[in-house]
Structure formats: C-alpha cells, structure tokens
Design brief:
By secondary structure, the chain is mostly beta strands. It folds into 2 domains: 2-51 and 375-663, YVTN repeat-like/Quinoprotein amine dehydrogenase (Methylamine Dehydrogenase, Chain H, 7 Propeller), CATH 2.130.10; 52-293, Neuraminidase (6 Propeller), CATH 2.120.10. The chain is globular and about 70 Å long.
C-alpha cells in the first residue's frame, strides 16, 4: 500500500467535533435560566486533504532521465526522475492548466517541450520549453494553440515542433512552433468532422496527424492524415481497417516505417506498420485490448501499453504477446521507453517500473518516496460508512480511517467515478471500461475487479444500492458508440447484468436512483443535438422498462433522488423538476442556477434530499421543495463533477476545496 503524507494524522476535533460551523450557535438564555449553548444546526468536520499523491499523465525518457508530467494537480509541473540513482533530481512548475499529457524532446536532447490541458481558455501559453542543460531554471511558455488542449507533441529532425489536441465543439488543427522564429502557426484543419486529435509524428518532409476520440459523446472515428511540409497540403492515408475504430491513438516514426495504433471499442485496438515511401503498403494487426499506446521500438519488436498491461509486437511474425514481469499491476500506463535492454514504464500509480523483458524481472520505484512533490489532487466518487470514508481519484482511492485519521492510498486502475459502501465493503464504478471494483478493508490489501462489462460501455457516472433487489446499480455512458447502459451487480451472488440503451440509442444514463425495487434512470446527451432529459422507470431484476416521462429540461439530467412518492431531478445548469411517481407527472419546477451553475449530485438522508454543486451544499424542503443552503462556498475540488454521499447515520460526505468534509445537518429551519 502507498500511504499519503497525511498518514497517522489525528483529526482535530473542537466545538463538539466540528472544525467549521455552517450555522452559529443559538444565543444563551437569560442569566436566571441560562442553559448550555444549543448544538449548532449544521456542523462541518474537516477530515483533511482528500487525496495526496504525485499524479501523472505523461512520461518520456531523455538520456538517463525520465521526465514526467503531472495530472490534476495545482500547479502543473514536470519532474526529472534520474534512473541511475532512482531519485527525482529536478522539477519545474508550468503554472497553468491542470495536467501535462504531451512531452517531446528535440533531436539534440537539450530542450523538453510540454503541452498542457486546461478546463477553459486561460489566455496564456499552453506550450512550454524546458532547457535541460540548465534544469534549475524554470520552463518558459513559448506558444499558444487556439485549440486550448495539447494532447500530443512531435519534434521533427530539424527541431520544428508540431502540436495537436482539441477543444469541445471545434475541429482540431495541426499547429507548428518554429523555435528559430519563436512563433506558433496554424497549419490547417485536416478533418472538419474530427472532434479531437491525440497523435502526431514528424519526419523531414511529412507530419502525420491522427484524430478521433473516445472522450464524451458525439465523437468522430479514426482518421490519419499526411501533411506535406513543403506543399502545405493534407492527404487522407487512413488504413481502411482502422476507419471504424474510435481514434488513432499513437504515432511513431521508426526508420523507414510509420507505426500507428488505434483505440478500439467493440473490436480490439489495432497496430499498423506503414512504409513511409509508400503509405499504401502496410500491415494491420489486432491487439489484445481496447487501446494501444506509448510506443517503444527495439529492433524487430514494438512495445506498447494496453489498458491492462504491457505488450510486445514482433514485426517478423505479426504476433502480439504480453510482456512478462513480476511487478504486478501496472495500472494506467503513460510512458513506455526502451534503454539498454530495459523497458522503462511510467505508471499512473505514481511509480516508475524498470522491466527486463528477457528475464521477466522488474524494479519498482514510488515517485513520492523518490522525491516527487506529493500534493492534493482533484477528486471523483465519495462513499462512507461508520469506520471509513473513501475518495476516488486517478489510479487511486484514498481510504480515510474515521477513528484514527489515518489515510491510505489504494491502487485502482483508471478512475473511481462513484462508489457505495455496502456491509463494510466498498464498490466502485471504474472508468475507463474497468467495470465494478470492490475493496473489503478486513480482507483485501488492494481493490479488485468483481465485474466486467462490454468495453464500449466504458464510463460509469452514478451508483446507488437497491435494497429490495439487493443490487448495486450503475449508470453508464458509452463514449464511443453513443447512448449508455444500466449495470446491475449482486454483491451477495456475484452475478451481473448490463442493459444497453435502456433510454434510447442516443441518451446516456447520467443518473440512477431507486424506490421499492424500481430504478429511475436519468438521460442526458453528450452531443450538442438530440433528445435529453428522459426519465425511465426500470425494473432492474427483470431488465424491463415500466414507463417513461420526458422532463421539461433542455440540458439533460445531472442528478436524481427519491423521497416518498416524489422523484427529484436536477438538470445541468440548475434546472429543477419534481415528478409525482404515482401520478407520473411533473408537479414542481424551479431554476436553481444561482447555486447550481453546472453539474450536481443528490442523495436522500434523514428525510430530506440534499444536493451539491461546484459551489454549494443545499437541501430541499420535503413538502414545498424550496431549496435552502446548508454550506455556502463549499467549492469542492472536483475532477469530473461534484458528489455527495451519506453514511448509515445520515451524515453527509463531500468536498470543501481539496479537503474531505463530513456535514452533520440537523435540518432545523
């Protein structure tokens, strides 16, 4: 297990167990009848930083040093991990964006280029350069693409830098940075229908641009273009065998060959080797998973990462096989390099693994212990019982011991989007295409997968427990195929089911809640056009629809909750609807965008429905449906939308800033 720096931290309890108070104590009675101060109606207990680790999203070997870009941390940074000493020897802060996905070095090895991801246009550079001959000097911003996010970089043999990425709702362009002129220029949009570009490679004469997306709804399919540097023109060179795949995932130039990999969906990802002199001459080989990325070449062998490990491809035999090693799970891999017979793997677990593929041995180094800066990370799903609270992050689930204050980082590949604790066992919906994972703190050292589902049903969004049917229910989005699904899992029997497109083939299942053995599924749509806002009453044990209603909302369902005969539905950007489940009609609407500007989550606790947004924790009156602020300015540091959950005593758990908090609301108005 990896422990965070907050391990053995004792909770600081004061004012009756609360650090912060959302409501002041009632005034004292007159002196002749003075009583003890009344207990505050709402107490907020700070449980410390939710997740602390060095989270990463890229890795690149330059010489004898691995340069690693951070993920969902503030500020963004790049660290230098020296392989001979296995120590972090340098770092630089970029200061903008939230993650560093793209790294590339110039042919001399002097300059390292880094591209960042941002939540919105910050107005400054998103391309940085670090002079590795003077690593104590910070990296400097050298360029800006109007596409906001830089997903991949390539440096041509002459030192020219090429960048690709994207911004929602806009076709991505190919960008060029000329280091001699110090200028960034836009070279054009190769594919007007593309929704994202994540692959680029360059030679003296040609730049290769790979597009397509597995992120979000309404995405394009794989496309590959060759850009003639002299003529300034694009040519579509997509292998037909890859055209139906969601995206071109990785590109690399090796001698006289171009190596191309895709991300798969209903079919495995593919690996193509193309002749640079004649791009119509190529081979295409299916791999063993839904993604193939992070290419490293040594002789006849191409090494790459899949979603569940490390693989190799022999060009002479066209055979794909796993790389054997003794390091255990590598989690989500963000870098694979080859040096002197050793594979250097940068893992989202916050580790660097040196693998000897011939011997099957490995050396694992935890970056936090090697000197990487460990700091708070933005978070995802939250769940709790009387003993433990859990917070999901990137390749980690932080377990908070509510008795001792000890925090332990558990390893789980991908992202725990939402979670429930049932009879002391944690169950999570894991993105990307990781199914349901479980962790029993009494028996398990680490979480383990207990159910898998069709790989295209890849993005869990919401979870709840159906006590009548004894089923865990998970609302799911299919990024690559559109629509979504409802997963069910029986913790008692270990059985599972997936009901694909229970709303329609366009609407994903954004939210799920349950009452008397009936699940209520809330629809949304990742594309700009199309239906959204449908609620389906669904019998999860039989897998059949009972009835449906289209809600009067234009932005789609963000969250659902049930109290008594009423179904509460929050839309994105604050639209609020209440449905009478017996009459099957809308009985109340309101606009709460002032406290709910984006996504939200809801939970039923102590006879009331609570909601949380990016800014506010609030509560609805069970009879009038009026909203009341419980904690203003809660401003949780969420990665993919806010969450709130309750323990068996009805206490709420959510985020305030980057800290996990417990809210005890007595509901006295």
């Amino acid at each position: 297990m990896q422990s965070s720096p907050s391990m053995d931290r004792r909770l600081l309890l004061k004012a009756g167990g609360a650090i912060g108070l959302a409501a002041a104590a009632a005034p004292l009675l007159p002196a002749q009848a003075q009583a003890a101060p009344a207990r505050p109606r709402t107490t907020v207990t700070d449980l410390g930083v939710a997740i602390e680790q060095f989270a990463l999203m890229s890795g690149l070997l330059v010489g004898d040093t691995v340069y690693i870009g951070s993920r969902n941390m503030t500020p963004t940074r790049v660290i230098a991990f020296h392989l001979p000493t296995r120590k972090v020897v340098h770092r630089t802060e970029l200061g903008t964006g939230h993650s560093v996905q793209a790294l590339a070095a110039d042919p001399t090895g002097r300059y390292l280029y880094a591209g960042i991801l941002t939540k919105g246009d910050e107005g400054g550079p998103n391309l940085f350069r670090w002079d590795l001959t003077t690593p104590d000097r910070p990296a400097v911003g050298v360029g800006r693409t109007e596409d906001r996010d830089i997903r991949e970089l390539a440096v041509a043999p002459d030192g020219t830098v090429y960048a690709v990425g994207g911004i929602p709702g806009k076709a991505p362009a190919l960008w060029m940075y000329d280091p001699a002129a110090g200028a960034m220029s836009r070279l054009g949009v190769p594919d007007a229908g593309a929704t994202l570009a994540r692959a680029v490679a360059a030679t003296d004469t040609t730049v290769f641009f790979g597009a397509g997306s597995t992120l979000g709804g309404g995405t394009s399919k794989a496309s590959l273009f060759a850009y003639d540097r002299a003529a300034g023109t694009f040519t579509d060179v997509t292998p037909p065998e890859m055209a139906a795949d969601p995206s071109v995932r990785e590109l690399a130039v090796d001698g006289d060959r171009l190596i191309v990999t895709s991300a798969g969906s209903t079919e495995p990802a593919k690996l193509a080797v193309m002749d640079l002199a004649d791009l119509s001459s190529y081979t295409v080989t299916p791999t063993r998973g839904t993604v193939a990325k992070n290419l490293a070449v040594h002789g006849d062998t191409i090494y790459f990462a899949g979603e569940s490990g490390l693989y190799c491809y022999a060009r002479s035999t066209h055979v794909v096989a796993p790389v054997e090693h003794d390091a255990g799970s590598l989690g989500e891999i963000w870098g694979v390099d080859h040096a002197d017979g050793t594979l250097v793997v940068t893992s989202g677990y916050g580790i660097v693994v040196e693998v000897d593929p011939s011997a099957g041995t490995s050396v694992v180094t935890e970056l936090g212990r090697a000197g990487a800066p460990v700091s708070p990370q933005t978070t995802m799903g939250v769940a709790a019982d009387r003993r433990y609270a859990y917070v999901g992050g990137n390749n980690v689930i932080a377990r908070h011991d509510l008795r001792t204050g000890t925090v332990v980082n558990l390893r789980a590949p991908g992202e725990a989007k939402d979670a429930e604790v049932l009879n002391g066992v944690l169950y999570t919906g894991q993105y990307n295409a990781q199914g349901i994972w479980a962790h029993d703190p009494a028996e398990d050292e680490q979480p383990r997968q207990v159910a898998d589902f069709p790989s295209e049903q890849n993005r869990p969004l919401d979870t709840c427990y159906d006590p009548v049917n004894r089923l865990l229910l998970v609302a799911v989005q299919s990024d690559t195929e559109g629509g979504g699904s409802l997963w069910t899992y029986s913790p008692r029997k270990g059985t599972k089911a997936a009901y694909v497109n229970p709303i329609d083939d366009v609407q994903l299942v954004r939210a799920v809640t349950t009452r008397h053995g009936v699940a209520y599924l809330g629809g949304d749509n990742g594309a700009a056009q199309g239906p959204r806002g449908t609620v389906v009453a669904f019998e999860p044990a039989a897998g059949r629809e009972l009835w449906r209603v289209d809600l009067p909302m234009t932005t789609g369902v963000a969250a659902l909750a049930v109290l008594g005969r009423y179904l509460y539905a929050l839309a994105r950007k604050g639209g609020f609807v209440v449905v009478d489940l017996k009459a099957r009609r809308v009985v109340h609407t309101a606009d709460h965008r002032s406290i709910c500007p984006g996504f939200s989550a809801m939970v039923t606790s102590r006879g009331a429905v609570y909601g949380v947004s990016d800014t506010t924790l609030f509560r609805f009156h069970p009879e009038t449906f009026a909203v009341r602020t419980v904690v203003a300015g809660i401003d949780g540091a969420w990665y993919s939308g806010p969450h709130v959950n309750a323990d068996s005593r009805g206490r709420l758990y959510t985020m305030r800033g980057d800290h996990l908090v417990r809210v005890d609301d007595r509901q006295a108005d």
